[in-house]
Amino acid sequence: MKKVMFGAMLTLLLISMLTMAFNVQVTMSSEPPPTEWGRTYNQSYVDVPDTIIQTADGGYAIVGQTGPSDTPPFDIWLVKTNATGHVEWNRTYGGTGDDAAGDFVQTNDYGYAIAGYTTSKGAGQHDMWLVKVNSTGHVEWDRTYGSTNIDVADSIVQTRDGGYALAGMAGGSPTAHGDFWLVKTNATGHMEWNRTYGTASPETARSLDQTSDGGYAMAGNIGDDWLLVKTNSTGHMEWNQTYNLGSNDEVHSAILTKDGGYAIVGHTDLSGPYNVWLVKTNSTGHAEWNRTYGRADVDDAMSIVQTSEGGYAFAGIIDGAFYSKGDAWLVKIDSTGLVEWNQTYPDEGYDIAHSVIQTRDGGYALVIQTGPPWGPSDFRLIKLSPEKILATVNIDPDTLNLKSNGQWITAYITLPNGYNVEDIVLETVKVNGISAAWSDIQNGVYMAKFDRATVQTYLTNEPDYESAPKFYDITLTVTGGLTDGTLFEGTDTITVIKK
């Protein structure tokens, strides 16, 4: 095992950049998308979810822990659902010891690879554990990695060569600090190489991504600071950056962003018990901006995703009291970190969202631990409707004489900044449910053409048409979608002259 010792660590003091998100101007007045459905899953006395993914068939898979009491030992629990959250199958994995999942992925063969730790087998107190299962959850093989100390995995990716990379901590013990640990395996889990990265401080990696150049990026903690490490394809460190705001800063999630940078989220205690802290960096880890979010109680973020239009959504807890109460929390921000909307999902007692994804239809799915942290708890899966952006719509003619003849009614559609009308999919464009017949684009405006006779028939069949005055106003709603799944909606009011 090769130990890479850090040289001078660059600590970025970002206090001067700190902005409390709820004290800044919101970028747009936007309502959270409504909940489509919610499901609760219970296996044993304590069920704690960790990660959710959307599967290739459009359903969902959730991994976490389950156990008969609120203290170890636990087993890994994997739940597979259909597209509406109904359970198709579920399996547990573990032995007589304590076994937990840190992360998982759906693999190229439509099975799953689960990374975590085990005390039921292996060489030490806790060994990093990789379990490969098939598409129905049956174990194909498993491997342990580690020494006689504490070794755990918190994140996993399937690499481009079909193998796996796992990141977590190596060499920990009750009296010794662990180090960042990166393990690379082949397709059947046999170790190809591993590297540790550390100093005299305790380090642990929480998130792992394979970068576009074939290397790896890991985010986690070095002592009470945040640490981002970038390596080449064989694990040799190319650079690292540290980030510090309060006296107790902890990373929970990090992602590669579309511009080649990174977004890291967790908590800081700078201005309260905990507030959510988000740092956006460039491709070499230098902070571009950072913001905090929350109120006066314990607020934390456990998971972050980049959304289809380039903003971010993170999920966690708000108004907590150090793991005795709190509400699950989802926050949507724009590409500069300004809040667009936020929503809580309370149940009873302590409710925390552990993982969020943007679904293929443009909505969101988040998995929540419901119940107290010590006591009975369940998995809760919430699916939100696709988010809609507000379009500006002008309908021509703005006075529609039902006696007059004509072929078309035209809706002129303009999208907000950051969206391109060239991405509008004609087949999705409708006015009050009536599909557009054809379209054109001129000077950045999308012109959707609707058959005039069809629209007029719709108006005359409305229940209030007969009782309406000779001249009356009606608001028409134009909806549609973009190539990336983003939905839009806009309205315009026109005057109708009855026959």
Description of the structure:
The chain is mainly beta. Mean pLDDT is 91; it is low at 1-29. The protein is 2% helix and 55% strand. The relative contact order is 0.11. It is built from 1 helix and 40 strands. The chain folds into 2 domains: 2-386, YVTN repeat-like/Quinoprotein amine dehydrogenase (Methylamine Dehydrogenase, Chain H); 389-497, Immunoglobulin-like (Sandwich). The strands form 9 sheets. Strands 31, 33, 35, 36, 39 and 40 form a 6-stranded mixed beta sheet that branches. The protein has a 5-stranded mixed beta sheet with strand order 1-15-14-13-12, with no helix packed on it. The chain has a 5-stranded mixed beta sheet with strand order 2-19-18-17-16, with no helix packed on it. Strand 8 and strand 9 form a beta hairpin. The chain is elongated and about 85 Å long.
